[in-house]
Amino acid sequence: YSQLRLILGDQLNASHSWLRQPCEDTLYVMMEMRQETDYVRHHRQKVLAFFAAMRNFANAIAHKHDVLYLTLDHQGNKQQLTDNLDMVLQHTKVQDFAYQAPDEWRLDEQLARYSPDGVSVSMVDTEHFLTARDALGDYFKDPNKVLLETFYRRLRKQYNYLMEGDKPAGGKWNYDHDNRKKLPDKVQVPTPLVFDNDVSELDVLLTKQGVDSFGEVDATALPWPVSRKQSRELLNFFLEHGLANFGRYQDAMSKRCWSLFHSRLSFSMNSKMLSPREVIESAIEAHHKQPDVINLAQIEGFVRQILGWREFVRAIYWDKMPDYANLNKLQHERALPEFYWTGDTKMACLQHAIRQSLQYAYAHHIQRLMITGNFALLIGADPVAVDAWYLGIYVDAIEWVELPNTRGMSQFADGGILATKPYASGGNYINNMGHYCKDCHYDVKQKHGEGSCPFNVLYWHFLDRHQQLFANNQRMSMMYRQWEKRESNEREAILTTANEYLIHLETL
Ligand code: FAD
Ligand code: SF4
């Protein structure tokens, strides 16, 4: 062979130009490694989904290309990326090595530092995203004053998505106001399409190799799509059953279904089995075909997530790393309560969001942000622990997207680079958007004292302890005024209950 090409586990892009033509003198290499199973403790379904998808991808491209696939138990597998590359390069005597730009800092550094003797090394694009890695500077003069809305509008124009000339289709850029409703009892939710993939062989392999993981799994029926074909099926299912209500119930929370009208396409996109362009363009096409069923508010809400948020958090990640991973503006240090790994808490909202995450390796955005994330923020949990939890538990969790969402958007540890104010709320928000409170041990209407909703008192405790930092934030001044208007004995009662709860977190 004259060239060795590495394909990482989240680079399963079958449309990559590398793969267009069969090339007899090129060898592709893919590897299952302990380096990847062990950098954080993952949900079992996440490890299984990645390995199963990698195996399917390797088998699919092997029809036209030569592929060396190192399984976890392959005799020569050194379980570390560059050691394995050394071994393959020595064995094949190839003098030209190429890889696709990794999306994670960790792997990018590892490969950037790799310079095997006598071998030329080059990096190519993954041909997946709609913006370049270092796009932030193209869109903002001051990279510390960035706004999703500005970034998103520029991209809408650049790609001509949902545009009428240089104006947004329908005359509005943002339909959030029409969206984000609570889920009424009478609205039917689709039964999620699951794939029941039998990955029991892989599961046995993980056990034999002693891979540590957590979460529930039925390895004879893994629900996640693990091939391009299944990913396309999930996309079509979403277009048919989810998109028409996507924006409307995007922020709704309910025990009735684990994914409501969400697409669950994040794993397929993050592993690159689906490209963001094809997802956006298929959704826009579905809207054009049935504009009365899939109205502008629904399609705009969906496009904003992928064209806007997904590209935006990636741009922030690459602009701010590696420092971003150590930011802790609020100096939070508390350990996460044990119930994050069991769901055993009397708080109905947390119990449901955590148990569902353990069961499916999935929770939708508002569960992540306003339930588990909000609680971690209010109690002052150490962002290192919070990151490790999110990076481990979700099937779609890869650092470039997990870190800005968790440390930035959810924990405000970046001091407001990603969000202009912390996503902190009391029980009222959860009650307004979800069905949890009526079945809860705690009373969402009670403002303090035993039995009061922990979110209520912890919210004011959070504002009170960070007054210096937030009192001048325009978007929060109204809440501070409300706090100051209260009688001092009421404020004291709230803080006393909050302190009690903080001491006894594990029993909440
Ligand atoms: P849908 O609701 O159907 O949305 C469609 C798509 O939009 C998603 O598949 C995703 O690709 C994209 N999207 C939506 N919101 C975001 C966002 N905030 N950032 C980036 N992309 C977005 N997403 C991940 O892909 N991996 C993560 O590790 C991850 N960690 C998160 C941690 C926290 C604390 C929070 C608050 C959010 C996190 N997100 C993460 C973003 C978002 O919650 C998930 O992308 C979404 O829930 C995936 O489910 P879905 O495919 O059904 O999304
Ligand atoms: Fe969650 Fe509070 Fe509602 Fe209970 S009362 S479900 S803790 S918001």
UniProtKB/TrEMBL annotation:
Annotated SUPFAM superfamilies: Cryptochrome/photolyase FAD-binding domain
One Pfam family per UniProt: DPRP
Keyword line: Lyase
Gene3D superfamilies noted in UniProt: 1.25.40.80, Deoxyribodipyrimidine photolyase-related, DNA Cyclobutane Dipyrimidine Photolyase, subunit A, domain 3, HUPs
Keyword Lyase: yes
Stated name of the protein: Cryptochrome/photolyase family protein
GO MF term (any one): lyase activity
Organism whose genome encodes this protein: Aliidiomarina maris
